[in-house]
Amino acid sequence: MERLLDPLDSWRRVTLAGLLRVPGLGAVLRRRDARLLLQTSLGATVAFTLTLAAPGALLVLGPLCMGVLHVAADVRYLVVRRGVPARVVSAVLLASVALFSLRVAAMLGAPAGTVTAAEVGLGFSLPLIVLALSPSRRAALVAVPLLAVLGLALSAPGRTQLVFAYAHNVVGLLAWGLLFRRRRLIAAPALGLAASGALLLASGALLPVARLTGPWAERVVDEAMMAMPLAEPRRAIGVGLSFLFLQALHYSAWLSWVPQDDLPGEGTTTFRMSARSFARDLGRPLAAGVVALALIVAAAGVVAPHPARHVYLSLATFHGYLELAMLAFLVARPTGLSR
Predict the structure, then answer these.
(1) Which residues contact 326 (CB under 8 A, 6 or more apart)?
(2) Buried-exposed string 98-114: b where 16+ CB fall within 10 A, e elsewhere
(3) Cα–Cα distance between 79 and 281 in angstroms, integer?
(4) Residue 145 to residues 21, 63, 221: CA-CA distances in angstroms?
(5) Per-residue pLDDT tens digits for 108-118
(6) 216: three-class secondary structure by DSSP
(7) What pLDDT shows up at residue 93?
(8) Residue 182 DSSP SS3
(9) Using CA atoms, how far apart are residues 138 and 272, in angstroms rounded to an integer?
(10) What is the reported pTM?
(11) Are 77 and 321 in contact (CB under 8 A)?
(12) Whole-angstrom Cα distance, residue 63 to residue 164?
């Protein structure tokens, strides 16, 4: 199987050799901090440009091409590699299965209000459950704001679900910048670009230059209006574009930025090395299952892109709560990311 990656590694070797010979650029690429400063800043700029030039493509292709793999990255970098106690892993696994089952029930016709209330209640209780399984003074301090969030969530489950769908993209970026990034100052430009870009898009000021024509782009408009039916159309569409921008950065963080910062050395890995690491972390059967599922979702997207995207997004909602719970655990743990 790894031999299938040889052409990609050959392309990587030739491309990297050429880039390293470029005056000034070679020194940047050899050092992780400099490389990530360039990559993340450029990535935020490209994501912002694509949000305006091809929002429909981000809406459809992002989840279909990167969704499954980024959920697997959540599990790898927040659970598997962190030396999490078995009791915490079990709680997160059981809650994830329950949340997944709730989404299946909703798709099969269960009352939407009941499912939403149960999902929000369980999802925002999960961080508190995880903290209770690892009690400490720091865990108690982290639990205080989470208790307040749980109360607010239960008071308006439907609205909370929509807000969290947007906000969990920000959570992923903050996790990279504040936890995984060794020198946090290096993350500041990318996080600043993310914040300023999201606010500018949400304002609706750039709608005149956004390409909102074509079936996929028109879907952006329709879904934004459905998500915020009482908002002014200009504001609703602006928030929709802001969501797409942050979602693209969220995928980049978990699939590229976090993996690089989790490496022990300064270099990068080959495609073969990445595949071996992936199989080692998840185990070969589960890793093969993840790859197969990713291919199935992508293939379904070719046949019916919008239904396939809808099914993926519905069934993958558990991962946002998993991120929140494990980040609460890591912040509360005295050793942080280390085991």
Answers:
(1) 74, 78, 79, 82, 84, 92, 130
(2) ebbebbeebeeeeeeee
(3) 10
(4) 50, 31, 34
(5) 999 999 999 99
(6) helix
(7) 96
(8) coil
(9) 40
(10) 0.93
(11) no
(12) 17
CA 276 to chain centre: 22
Which residues 6+ apart lie within 8 Å of 11 measured at CB?
none
Residues 35 and 82: their CA atoms lie apart, in Å, by: 25
Residue whose structure tokens are 């690089």 = 260
What are the structural domain ranges in the chain?
Answer: 32-331
Rounded Cα gap, residues 154 and 142, in angstroms: 19
Residue pair 281/81 in contact by the 8 Å Cβ criterion = yes
pLDDT digits (tens, 9 = 90+) for 243-288: 999 999 999 999 999 999 998 888 788 889 899 999 999 999 999 9
- 270: tokens are 């080959």
Would you say 336 and 330 are in contact if contact means Cβ atoms under 8 Å apart? yes
Find the distance separating the first CA and the last CA of the chain, reported in whole Å. 31
Return contacts of 137-144, CB within 8 angstroms, 24+ apart.
Answer: 138/331, 138/332, 138/333, 138/334, 139/332, 141/332, 142/328, 142/331, 142/332, 143/328
pLDDT digits (tens, 9 = 90+) for 120-179: 999 999 999 999 999 999 999 999 999 999 999 999 999 999 999 999 999 889 999 989
CA–CA gap between residue 197 and residue 247 (Å, rounded): 12
Calculate the CA 146 to chain-centre distance: 20
